[in-house]
Design brief:
- Helices cover about 35% and strands about 25% of the residues.
- With about 220 residues, it is of the alpha/beta class.
- It has a 7-stranded mixed β-sheet with strand order 3-2-1-4-5-7-6.
- It has a single domain, classed as 3-Layer(aba) Sandwich (Rossmann fold), CATH 3.40.50.
- InterPro entries: Methyltransf_11 (IPR013216), SAM-dependent_MTases_sf (IPR029063), Thiol_S-MT (IPR052356).
- Pfam families: Methyltransf_11.
């Protein structure tokens, strides 16, 4: 990563993702979180004020030192323990079945291997744990013109925002990682042009891990 991606982009994201218009969405996606949670793409901590009181601790996964420093004031203002516990959502440094819930907001667009990150999230969730997600990605199939513009703009968007994709099919990716979606809302945000803000906000349930389902030889 160069100077722009390491030093400039986290500050741009801090401002862009800190808009008042995003706060109702953050409040919605955090509803129902409880227990020990892992948040991938923690960024500068904009979700921290919306953690429910039922959250007992947060393992923050954030690669950017700048982003983590920018989060300092928000972390200091909450009574919920928040620790920086990882740098890479594609390889989480936690044991299987470690967390009650996971949170991801506007993160899967940028992780190089988002499919691997989702599999890792499912691995570290307890059976029956939930993934709460708010992500932008590929527009609905019926919006052909929006999808066309997303494909045109994606190369530029990736250069400007350190690899941020516009065309990832978020709901399909969550399902493919082994989650069962229990709640979903697909919509366009009003704060930006449609190609940039085709959002999916939902909750997905983690089932038993593949190893848990393997019959024992002596069964």
């Amino acid at each position: 990563m160069g100077f722009y991606a390491e030093r400039v982009v986290p500050r741009i994201v801090d401002v862009a993702c800190g808009m008042k218009a995003a706060e109702p969405l953050r409040r919605r996606v955090c509803e129902g979180l409880r227990g020990e949670i892992v948040e991938i793409g923690f960024g500068s901590g904009h979700n921290v004020p919306f953690y429910p009181a039922a959250v007992t601790g947060v393992a923050a996964v954030e690669p950017s030192d700048v982003g983590w420093r920018l989060a300092g004031e928000r972390i200091g203002a909450t009574s919920i323990p928040v620790r920086r516990a990882g740098l890479d959502g594609q390889s989480l440094p936690f044991e299987d079945s470690s967390f009650d819930a996971a949170l991801s907001t506007w993160t899967l667009c940028t992780i190089p291997d988002a499919d691997a990150a989702l599999r890792e999230v499912r691995r570290v969730l307890k059976p029956g744990g939930t993934l709460h997600f708010l992500e932008h990605g590929l527009a609905p199939a019926e919006d052909v013109n929006v999808r066309r513009w997303q494909r045109r703009l994606e190369p530029l968007n990736k250069r400007l925002f350190a690899g941020c994709h516009l065309t990832r099919p978020i709901v399909d990716m969550v399902k493919a990682a082994g989650f069962t979606i229990t709640d979903i809302d697909v919509f366009y945000e009003k704060r930006a042009p449609k190609p940039m803000c085709a959002d999916s906000l939902g909750v997905a349930l983690a089932g038993r891990h593949a190893a848990d389902r393997t019959p024992r030889a002596d069964a």
